[in-house]
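Input:
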Amino acid sequence: MSLDRFPITRKWPAKHPDRLQLYSLPTPNGVKVSIALEELGLAYEPHLVSFDTHDQMSPEFLSLSPNNKIPAIIDPDGPGGRPLPLFESGAILYYLAEKTGRLAPRDAAARYETLQWLMFQMGGIGPMFGQVGFFVKFAGKDFEDKRPRDRYVSEAKRLLGVLERRLEGRHWIMGDEFTIADIATFPWVRNLVGFYGAGELVGFSQFANVRRVLDAFIARPAVKAGLEIPRRP
Ligand SMILES: N[C@@H](CCC(=O)N[C@@H](CS)C(=O)NCC(=O)O)C(=O)O
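Output:
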């Protein structure tokens, strides 16, 4: 299977064009896909997209991911056996679950419920926690006016409350089954209290269920592995 028709392979050549190609960086959005691939045990070839060198703005990367964001993939063995290019982590997770019949419940109603929580992460937790990061860890932390920071902190708190209530009496977001909804959500929770250091600001200690599930998530061998892929130089 040749992937030559994808311009991205000029900058990141595929050594194993028969394997799923992952273009990413170990950020909370990036690791969603490496964790899913590790959980599924699919053969894949990770490529590092370095923000230090603005790789995400290169024409080769934009040819696959026009919104200049990681993660993105090419699956050489997509629907109908043809290569499938895809960006947006939620779409990729859903695709991988459909392709393998794993990481999402088989029952149709429960699948839609999983999709609902995946969308809750994509539209709520990701963007809002990301803004907390900007105002607490990055350039926004030096802004004198703390109202924007406070707005996103209180929204993050509210979202954690929604997740906390959902996890009451459940092992994972969908109950006993570990799904793409967990894979989408917990890298962001980990990042909020870890890398961003916003645990105290959002009152993380009061979210006992979220803390419990975060610990269980991080303890999974596939999660441990996926969090480091693609390896930074
Ligand atoms: N909704 C997108 C968001 C992806 C995203 O924000 N990726 C960040 C890293 S976590 C990125 O690539 N940023 C590079 C940039 O904005 O230039 C997804 O879930 O795939």
